[in-house]
Amino acid sequence: MPKSATDKRHFIIAAALVAVTTVLMDILLKAVLPLPIQASLEALTIDALIGWHLSLIAFLFSLIVVFMLYSIVVFRKRPGDNSDGEHFEGNTTLEIIWTVVPLIAVIIFAFYGINTLAEVTRSEPNEVVVKVNGFQWGWSFEYDGVLSPEMVIPVDQRVRLEMNTRDVIHSFWIPEMRVKQDLVPGQETILRFTPIVTGEYTLACAELCGRSHWSMLAPVRVVSASEFDQWLAQRRAEQNPALVQAGPDTE
């Protein structure tokens, strides 16, 4: 093994170790940090961004730790060696590289993040509108005047949540959908997502909102379009039987 720290073989060996360690760390991070099922289109987009961030974290960790450990092992002081360490004046090329490369990486991730945000928050025609009301410590949902203690939404259709709070700040969060949005006193906030997997989920408040914050949960069901229409018609009939019997033309 060459003794000089400026020998290029050291950089080649260290770079190879960084590459191997990056792959191993990337696999490890994604194995120990499993995500819930991807139940919305937004989950696919957001998980891709999370995956790239984990890969970047694995690379930066490997870059620092591998070079540090390599230097400690290879360039450690040997018994009987009392000479001074090799003197360096600096490396302009290396300094330019470690300034420009991170800048380019930040710009790329910023562009990726902006596109991801635009994709997640986009609007579409014929959205299913649900009015969400948060309060200490529960949720209620309204569908064009029809009230419900649970949120039922059709699969494969864009949902627009118009959210308000009666008291303090709450946060709408269904982990399987990946999206999250605060409910702020005095203003209406909007959240959109497109569910793609039918099933039962749980809505939780992700903002500490008081003594019983832990119990601020509500059931969420993603059903077929026909089942959603049937459920909504049944709820409307239960809450407005006179209007349903009279027909839609009755004033």
Describe the secondary structure blueprint for this structure.
Blueprint: H1 8-32, H2 41-74, H3 92-121, E1 128-135, E2 138-143, E3 146-148, E4 151-154, E5 159-165, E6 170-173, E7 180-183, E8 189-193, E9 199-205, E10 217-223, H4 225-239, H5 241-246
Question: How would you describe what is shown here?
Answer:
The chain is an alpha+beta fold. Helix content is about 45%, strand content about 20%. The protein has 5 helices and 10 strands; from the N terminus they run αααββββββββββαα. Helix 2 packs antiparallel against helix 3. The longest helix is centred in the N-terminal third of the chain and has 34 residues, at about 40-75.
Shape, per Cα inertia axes: elongated
Q: How many beta-strand segments?
A: 10
Q: Numbering strands along the chain, what is their spatial order in the largest sheet?
A: 3-2-1-5-8
Distance between the termini: 92 Å
Give a brief rundown of this model.
The chain is an alpha+beta fold.
Keywords:
2 domains; 5-stranded mixed β-sheet; 22% strand; Immunoglobulin-like; alpha+beta; 44% helix; 251 residues
